[in-house]
Amino acid sequence: MSDEPTPAPMQDPESQIPAPAPIVPTKKKSTVVNPYVWGTGRRKAAVARVRIKPGTGNFTVNKKDVDTFFCIDKDRFAVREPLAVTDSLKSYDVFVNVGGGGVTGQAGAVVLGLARALTKDNPDFDAKLREHNLLTRDARRVERKKYGRRGARRSFQFSKR
Known about the structure:
This protein is α+β, with helices and mostly antiparallel strands and 161 residues long. The protein has a domain at 37-131: Ribosomal Protein S5, domain 2, CATH 3.30.230. It is built from four helices and five strands; from the N terminus they run E-E-E-E-H-H-E-H-H. It has a five-stranded mixed beta sheet with strand order 1-2-5-3-4. Helix 2 (73-85) packs parallel to helix 3. The protein is elongated and about 130 Å long.
């Protein structure tokens, strides 16, 4: 054992820098409140994306008034039925984007999408809408054409002579 002082251990310069704190992801709360409630409806080949918000009763389909988009009275009454059943015709503004299928299929898709959006906004409407079968998806599709036939079931015209 000698009286010489022991040399200090050598430290490399990187070990003197403190380790960075781990990055913890934080959820930012959005300052923008979305006033819309969404509902999706499908019928045959038609798909409707419905947005509702509290308002005065405006109803637009593909940026047109509902009465100009749906020309047939049956379809006009059908798309308003979820609002009429829940007594909220003048309580919501409805904005719909619909595509695919034909006019009747699009009307059915709008009905289902609107009913779903109303239920999401106010769960008390669920019983009334179910009572009128407005929350039920109509799964009927066009039957495929079979070979040896003119259509799905129709045969070719038969001639005796």
